[in-house]
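tool=predict chain=A
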Amino acid sequence: MLSAVMEDYIKAIYTIGNDTDERVSTSELADYLDVTSPTVSSMVKKLEERGLVDREEYRGVTLTEEGEVVALEILRHHRLLESFLTEHLDYDWADVHEEADRLEHHVSDELTERIAEALDNPGVDPHGDPIPDADLRLPEVDEQTRRLSSAAEGDHVVVRRIRHQGDEELRYLSEAGIEPGVELEIVEIAPFGLVTVRTPEGKQSLPEEIARLIETASVSEAEV
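tool=predict ok
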């Protein structure tokens, strides 16, 4: 049986690696989990001994096939919990991540499936992150998305996903009225990286590091 800390590391390796499509370095894991590099090295060694990660010195780590299965199980628990908290317990979408982090290690597969059924088996969570199905397959995506930071002035887009970096960023966007499903117009992109958008509630200027967290799809002129 894996400890909650081991599961946190596996989820972090999957999340970072899936974002960059590269091996995950010790420093990246340390920053992501807010721990020291020696702590990361010690845990990675334990995960390697269990056959959950493949480690190459100076090149970082990646999950083995078994490790990826564990990661997808954890993500299914986590994202279904976020959906349940939002839809049935009136949590704000920006406040469910930490709660789901605490609960994901303690829910059984049976409870997870009952939650999925109660939610009618959603494909994405409140942040737009894909939820693995009962067979741990990720849902197919029919449309192309791109980061808001790479949009052009005058583009009309709809928010599809907000990648999690920290609860402060999620609350910042929630207060700005920017969440999955909201349509935006790109008003201005400043030379130093500030992205100004028009939301249904008015204009908002976003730092480039925040705009990078937002995945969008194009909206045709007929839909605007």
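The first strand starts at residue 53 and ends at 56. The chain is about 40% helix and 15% strand.
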